[in-house]
Amino acid sequence: MTLQTMNPSPETGTPIANSLTAGRLPSSAPWVILGTAVAVAAAVFGVVAIGSGSGFDWGGALVVGALLYIPSIWLFSRLVEGARRATDRLVTALVTGAFLLAMIPLVSLTITVVTFGLARFDADFFSMSMRNVTGEGGGALHAIVGTLLMTGAAAIISIPIGLMTSIYLVEYGRGKLARGVTFLVDVMTGIPSIVAGLFAYSLFAIFWGPGTRTGIAGAVALSLLMIPVVVRSSEEMLRLVPNELREAAYALGVPKWLTIVKVVLPTSIAGITTGIMLSIARVIGETAPLLIAAGFTASMNYNLFDGRMQSLPVFVYTQYANQGNPAEAFLDRAWAAALTLILIVMALNLIARLVARLFAPKLGR
Amino acid sequence: MTSAPAPIKAKLRVGDLVFSRSAVFAGSMILVTLAAVAVFLIVQSIPALSATKDDASILDTNFWAYVGPLVFGTVWAAALALVIALPVSIGIALFISHYAPRRLASVLGYVVDLLAAVPSVVFGLWGIGVLAPAVVPVYTWLNEHLGWIPLFSGTVSATGRTILTAALVLAVMVLPIMTAICREVFLQTPVLHEEAALALGATRWEMIRVAVLPFGRSGIISASVLGLGRALGETMAVAMVLSAAHVVTFDLLTSVNPTTIAANIALSFPEAYALNVNVLIATGLILFVVTFAVNAFARWIISRRKEFSGAN
């Protein structure tokens, strides 16, 4: 018996239509379609603008153009390339669109804060407080000092506790306690900031009478938010230290605590510093807990343990919420403080990344 | 006869003892702190639970009638924010992990993380100053053309300071954390699965549908639950953007909006006195319990995935 192959004769068969042999759009097609879509949208908006006499809406034209692109690329691809590739192109357009959509608030926010913030971003703003200021003028020196003091105090409370907890989790932690701590640290990262403020307020209200609002209460609230971030990031960094280093130290007879202090910590110090700076950047912008626990004031206060203390985020909020006359002056101060705050946070972020890059341990050869 | 040598005992050093004890102490401080948060909030809340309007001036009838609309508003705003943020964050995560050029990917991830660095009070200012005026025409259009849907009915707010605007701001604020988690999970998809799908002739989207998304499902769930936890507790943006009333309503576009627990505390606490303070702390306790449960649930999903997935 002979094996019969059933080859359809290639000369007579019609080409099989599938995704491999079907036509493909040229690689420039998406760009051409996008350009056309935006041009069409711009034309429509232009006609509307001329018709109604209002200005040309650039943002609207771009958005409508982008929205027009999504069905058109699908349609063209569907006609030329078939259903499967059309879906693929549609999803590509949607996914890219999602990213661009997220960029809109970031760009808009940056532009707004810089343009409005520059109006009062002057020497007065950094050298005066709001004491006896009812209208224009005044500054945020008291808020800047308060922010530095409270964030500093929060850092002094959180860094030792956070760092030692992460050392416990990595070097010592076994069993139920360690698992419980890990879980609770994770849960602690999700505590709403206002609850941290309420906790600090109740703590101080119970011991020093209701209505106590001091800088140190604000610092306690902030440290509650800061500790889990410090623990998480330091733990991650400590786990990156290769076990060989620890074993080499033990083999030389170095005690465990000296191994940690002299070998493990120096190796991971860059990463730990980065994590701590990022955690400071996170809490320095917190408003709600400070509003509750530290209150607000118009005067300078250098004493963490006595009297209310202003901070930059709360300054932004109070300037906005209690607008006086002229309202413009209050809004300008709010925006200037917002700009200052964003600059501080960005600087902390940038320095943190630089530290991580420059001082990273060179483990490889 | 050979006897086993006496086991060598490690020398007990004072430094070791001090160091390990203080590490354990710091670890237990976390437990103590969380317990203290719960205890202090409960102690301060107890007087409020049985309060009536004669004791506390902000109550209309009793505590539970006061907190009901607040809980509704909190959940409603957070759920709206989640519905907006989830598809966008999955899209961004896919874009960064599977669509963007390799070299750009980490830079783009950093750019999205920048959103997380913006303080919430600045988001609040931006929400009132820029977003709210910008969405009014859109809201008017929605109301005119889709007003038959109950969500969009009613009289459109002239200021744009509605619950939908607040939810939009919340969505922007929870985007970074949700994107970060989704991105991480998508990047962990076994490359062999992806290549197998591509080798079988799948397009990129089909590869993502059959390999990446099923693998990342639990990651997406935990990202949304964590995002929900963030949105539930977010305070200042909502407090500043929303023009709030003490109501239960599903209307998205009107000027009568339910407010959230956190925003209500921030707005009322500075002027509160006597038992009103305890009432507000009690609402905070409820928020704490809800977010604790939500976060614990998210962490449970993540840890379950760690144990049972084949990836690690």
Description:
- The complex is a heterodimer of chains A (365) and B (312).
- Chain A has 365 residues and is mainly α.
- Chain A has 2 domains: 92 residues, no CATH class; 233 residues, MetI-like (MetI-like fold, Orthogonal Bundle), CATH 1.10.3720.
- Helix content of chain A is 72%, strand content 0%.
- In chain A, helix 2 runs antiparallel to helix 3, helix 9 packs antiparallel against helix 10 and helix 12 packs antiparallel against helix 13.
- Chain A starts with 28 loop residues before the first helix and ends in a 7-residue tail after the last helix.
- In chain B, helix 2 packs across helix 5, helix 3 packs antiparallel against helix 5 and helix 10 runs antiparallel to helix 11.
- Helix content of chain B is 73%, strand content 1%.
- Chain B has one domain: MetI-like (MetI-like fold), CATH 1.10.3720.
- With 312 residues, chain B is an all-alpha fold.
- Chain B has a two-stranded parallel sheet with strand order 1-2.
- The longest helix of chain B is centred in the first third of the chain and has 37 residues.
- Chain B has 11 helices and 2 strands, in the order αααααααααββαα.
- Classes of the chains: A mainly alpha (365), B mainly alpha (312).
- Chains A and B meet through helix 3, helix 5, helix 6, helix 7 and helix 8 of A and helix 1, helix 2, helix 3, helix 4 and helix 5 of B.
